[in-house]
Amino acid sequence: MTHESIPPPAVAACRSTRSSGRRPNADYRWTARKAMAFLDLLAAGESVAAAARRVGMSRQSAYRLRTRAGEHFAQGWDLARRAGHARRAAARERLGGSPR
To answer: Locations of Pro residues compositional bias (predicted)?
Structure first.
């Protein structure tokens, strides 16, 4: 999955909004770049937990982002998950395994 295949509003929805006067440390918040990398990892077949870990975030924060970021990000998430499932199924078939 490439960044071009995700609806443009999904990218904007991934940007954090500040609720206080303090600027949070970028390492501990979702950025558009982290969100896009997360979706790419889901599309590559990673689990939500593994994809979140690989971008330095938690599984729980990924699900919170899905709720907070809105419909476009949720659609990107769903597309990425379907692509990941298809990729894993194809790999299982190539290895002679049975589909789940």
So the answer is: 1-10
